[in-house]
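Appendix B, example 12.
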Amino acid sequence: MLLAVPALLLAGCASEGSPSTPAASSAAAAGAQASVALAAIKVAGAPGAKPTVTLASTPTALSSSGVRVLTPGTGAAVTSGQRVTVDYVLVNAKTGKEADTTFGKKTRATFLADPKQLLPGLANGMIGQKVGSRVLVGVAPKDGFAGGAGNQQLGFGKDDSLIFVLDIKSAITPLTGPQGDPVTPVKGLPTVTQDAKGVPVITMPTTPAPTKLVIQTLIKGKGAVVAKGQTVTAAYVGAVYGTGKVFDSSFKAGGSPLEVPIGVGGLVPGFDKGVVGQTVGSRVLLVLPPAEGYGAAGNAQAGIKGTDTIVFVVDVLAAS
């Protein structure tokens, strides 16, 4: 059994020949409590099939997060910062009832294994586990939703612990930028250069905007082909055709790459169509007429009128 990272660090400090401190003793006791609580939970069902989770008692309260390996995998161990694709069942430890699951749905979940970006107890529960494993992860309230604020939508109060059963399907490390072979674009399209920091710079032509969707690969990546329904990690810049005004960018201060299922209608149509079928590592230029963008309504918040054609430069960094 692996305990959450904070408990492991405290236990390590206390074991180096120095007297146990109250904080270390408290952490060790919390870790032991989590271990006992998780050992008492029954999980039925073969890996790959939806598990049935039965708690020893309700409510089950965890003072520390922890992990119990149900079926060890044979793949590589998950490392911090990787994108991890899983099937899961989430159970409320207070009631013993299922709160959410990916089993039976069209797409699996993809999580970033980073305690700064994901529920800390869940992120730390995945890090170090091998691909192919089925693991039971207990998340204490302090390591859960908003650091203990709960989640009304899923029915969790601020003091409710979370119980996950995860089938770890894959783990990948996103690229930091496009990697592949340059492609000579068709003439007359917006041109793309990049600044000293690698940020794409779009220069608009003087010709009228295309009336149909344009998908132009600028760098052909050598990774896997992006399939509909996968979660894509992509960096991007969006600008209005003609004026060149940038209305959105993942490269802006405080920005981060897009993390979203692709080809399932969650994005403007032309973006979905333009990224599906590309290869990981590619940089792609997309020119979207209104019908492939924000439509006749436009997007007032972004300063896009219903008649505006928009342009995206997209770096496909991962797909899982």
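The chain has two domains: 2-172, 180-319. The helical segments are 5-14, 22-39, 120-126, 269-275.
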